[in-house]
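Let's practice the habit of predicting before peeking. Look at the sequence and jot down your guess about where helices and strands might fall. Then scroll down.
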Amino acid sequence: MPWLVLLLCLFSSMSSAASKLEIGGGVFIADIPHYLGSDQSEQYIMPVPYIRYQSDDLDVDRNSFTGYLWHNESLHLDISAGVSLAVDSEENQAREGMDDLDWVFELGPSLNYYFIGAPKTAKQFSIGLFTRKAMATDFSSVTNAGWRYGPSIYFESPLIVSSGYEVTTSVRANANFC
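Done guessing? Here is the structure:
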């Protein structure tokens, strides 16, 4: 977590406009596949901190890490990141006898066209093309895991807005190629 604070401080000092930091807590409940295409998954239920940071240059929330690089009207070039959890092959029938899967971290550009709104508006609809360099690690070494690329579509819209809270709906879909 110290690396996140350092990253936020770095980008907040580079931001020319007001930055916004939200900190809170919640419960993480998810059923996450062991890897893309896996028919087995792990269930997670745990308390987690909630951090959302927004500035002109950077947006970090529960879904993504996005650095805003360039835009021209409805066309935006961003940098985004992703992570895949490590998998213990002994706990996955399809991977029995294989090496464990390490954590995989991804980073790369995304070119997005907004039909409705923009990256920081309450209501938005966009399509995009992304490419990310993937690196795998067990935290003792780092190896090349290749590239991931493909098209994406994203829609977000507020359902309920009040002075104390906001409820939104969002849908994201990617076609992933390696």
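How did you do? Confidence is low (pLDDT under 50) at residues 1-16.
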